[in-house]
Amino acid sequence: MTVRGDFRTVLEGLDAAATQEFLTAHSALPGPRANLELLAAFGDVAPADQILALVGSDDEYVASCAAAALGRLAGSGSAEQSRQALDLMRASAADLRWRVREGVAMGLQRLGDADPVRLCAVVLTWAVADDPLVQRAAVAGICEPRLLRDPSTARCALEACRLATASIAALGPEVRRRTDVRVLRQGLGYCWSVAVVGDPEHGLPAFDELAASDDPDVRWIVTANRSKARLIRLLAAAPGSSAR
């Protein structure tokens, strides 16, 4: 039995109140890293009513567990339940607590495991949202290597990165100083490298185009991605790329 499996077994035997207490008690917080095995196990087995009841909890870890678990409801629930889950995920993507926002990204990845076509539709809508935190959730959610083994999802990840980057380039200098815009920029500072490696055929030309920009924030995004080992290896093997 795995750690995640052990947690699933425990959670399946708890009522709603005991579940919340267990999540808080075993969150591993405060500390350098939250208990992601428990978070994943909750997403595997929690009943829909428990998930919905814990969305937006005052306990940041509990709220992050609920945000991630919404991805299961979005991918395998009824049409109405899926719409509700996606609405709640989008709202949680704008939460001021970073762990909750990470929970949303993990929830999108869970949706992508179940329904990659639906994930792409959601991500491309969120990537042009008027909230940079929602945009960041979109690119962070889809730029996951296991999802990009699917060629259509990999193309979608590149397009989401392109759309979100273009939105920053369209902003005035004062707006770019906002925290939410900086969070999006930081996300794009690693997501591009994941997307390019996921689809080098289309990703390298897209990154070449990005590297030609004279926009200071776009240049920052290019530089940040060039420092990532995954992209360093790819560019070394593609000496003709002007993005080196």
Overall description:
This protein is mainly α and 244 residues long. The chain folds into two domains: 1-114, no CATH class; 116-244. Helices cover 75% and strands 0% of the residues. It is built from 15 helices and no strands. The protein has helices spanning 3-12, 16-25, 36-45, 48-54, 60-76, 79-93, 98-114, 116-126, 132-142, 151-169, 173-176, 179-198, 200-211, 216-226, 229-236. Helix 8 runs antiparallel to helix 9 (132-142), helix 9 (132-142) packs antiparallel against helix 10 (151-169) and helix 12 (179-198) packs across helix 14. It starts with a helix and ends in an 8-residue tail after the last helix. The model has no long low-confidence stretch (mean pLDDT 96).
Structural class estimated from helices and strands? mainly alpha
The fraction of residues assigned to DSSP E strands is under 5%
Rg is 19 Å
Mean pLDDT rating: 96
Distance between the termini: 45 Å
- Indicate how many domains the architecture comprises: 2
Helix amount: over 70%
> Ranges with pLDDT <50 over ≥5 residues?
none
Main beta sheet, described? none
**Number of beta strands:** 0
